[in-house]
Write a structure and sequence with these properties.
This protein is of the alpha+beta class. It has seven helices and eleven strands. Helix 4 crosses helix 7. The mean pLDDT is 95.
Length: 267
């Protein structure tokens, strides 16, 4: 958390207010937040950069500047907050960028897991990532062939960012339920028809998540309403929306996993 829909929502909300502004200075308040370059080089390079665009790749926020890309991974508790420049830094602000127009952009991160990169070549970070599930490369044919090449449990594979970029715990559980696939199913046992169903389910769930501004299930990310439409996630013991069977919870790869034991059977 946040996953693809939450990061996409943040990017879309920030873009109208950030594009066209210049970064005047940087106040790095927690050294380890900055992955690269060095703090001195970071302050020098980011000063006077103009913000050209705000987007997303996988779970990374990608702020395109005149000469660099500012990449931010929110991890467990990160958030980006646009404020008046007179606003005093708050306790958990790890990086504050002073912007033109008397505004500032604060990276607030309670648990300190989030990271920031300033790079001229974002592909250095993105090269290990799999395709975007809402992109052109992600087709039913690609998914079928890629699943069949692996010999892994379905859910851990879908969570692997080098396989498919952007999916997390919530949206994987929801997608597998719609596709009627058990999270422990072997990836190389998936049929063409099942791969088609999973492809459609992943896109359906992500698009709905974005339309609902993501899911707000804890104190970290607020503003979304997709949690009101969960089919299985965080619904242990509640009836399946399809058959009425109580939703079960298991742990898969150290991740809490929710599914319907009747609709999603291991094959």
């Amino acid at each position: 958390m946040p996953e693809l829909p939450e990061v996409e929502t943040i990017a879309r909300k920030l873009k109208p207010d950030l594009v066209g502004r210049r970064i005047l200075s940087a106040n790095l308040r927690w050294r380890r937040t900055l992955a690269s370059p060095s703090p001195v080089k970071f302050r020098e390079q980011i000063a006077h950069q103009k913000i050209l665009d705000v987007g997303r790749r996988a779970k990374f926020l990608n702020i395109q500047l005149s000469d660099f890309n500012l990449l931010i991974h929110l991890r467990m508790s990160g958030d980006l907050l646009l404020r008046d420049v007179a606003h005093k830094p708050e306790k958990h602000d790890r990086l504050v960028l002073k912007l033109s127009g008397n505004r500032s952009l604060a990276f607030n991160d309670t648990r300190k897991f989030g990271r920031v990169w300033l790079t001229a070549d974002p592909d250095e970070l993105f090269t290990h990532l799999g395709p975007e599930p809402l992109g052109r490369e992600f087709t039913p044919q690609w998914l079928y062939e890629s699943l069949r090449k692996k010999r892994r449990m379905l859910k851990p594979l879908l969570l692997d960012q080098s396989f498919l970029a952007g999916l997390g715990n919530i949206y994987t559980d929801e997608s597998l339920n719609i596709a009627k696939l058990h999270p422990l199913s072997a990836s190389d046992s998936i049929t063409w028809k099942q791969a088609e169903a999973l492809h459609e389910a992943i896109r359906q769930v992500l698009r709905e998540g974005i339309r609902r501004n993501g899911a707000s299930i804890d104190w970290v990310y607020r503003g979304g309403e997709f949690q009101n439409y969960f089919r299985v996630y965080d619904r242990e013991g509640k009836p399946c929306m399809n058959c009425g069977t109580p939703i079960e919870r298991i742990v898969v790869g150290q991740r809490s996993t929710h599914y319907c034991p009747k609709c999603q059977r291991v094959k």
